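Pipeline run #58 for the internal structure catalog. This entry was flagged by the ingest filter as a single-chain record with no existing model, so it goes straight to prediction. Upstream metadata was stripped on purpose; only the residue string is passed forward. Reviewer on rotation: M.T. Logging verbosity set to normal.
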Amino acid sequence: MSSSGSPNDRPVAIRRERRSDVAARESLLDAAFGPGRFAKTSERLREGRKPARGLAFVARRGRRLVGTLRLWPVVTGTGHACLLLGPLAVAEEVRCLGIGAALMRQALQRADLLGHRAVILVGDAGYYERFGFSAASTGALRMPGPYERERLLACELAPGALRGAGGLIAPASPPPSRLSGLMDRIAGSQAPIGQPA
């Protein structure tokens, strides 16, 4: 740390997201993308679902959450399983310090270790190319809403993972049923038969 004691001198810790990070993560995403983030086509693939197990990350400087990145299980119309990356966000005051790149490297390395074969995203090719993303294998893929075709990028963690992939990208699992969640809560609150409620 330099003698100036600048906030930018503090070390950054990247770790898996915890339940206690949710409010700070949502505040960071609101600041980075505004309310329009919920209208993005990629959000349709995340809505009401959980990120892939072990693939939600945060960057912290001291007690402050300054970065977030999560990956979501999706499947192509041809049945190719892959992950959807995003959103990636870094607090404005610490951008250009390599935090986004560190989150990307951690996420891709962990996805590979967990056996995932490919990652897709909608983003700026100029930024994501350095991590192995390109539009080379996304030509036959479609998002479930409006998007800019040249921004649909993929990174094959296993060579040829997206060979022959095409069609509509969809969530790998349906969202949790509201009725099933309600039934679970009701069942959990009922006393055993013959016992007062």
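catalog note: The first strand starts at residue 13 and ends at 16.
catalog note: The chain has one domain: 7-189.
status: ready for reviewer M.T.
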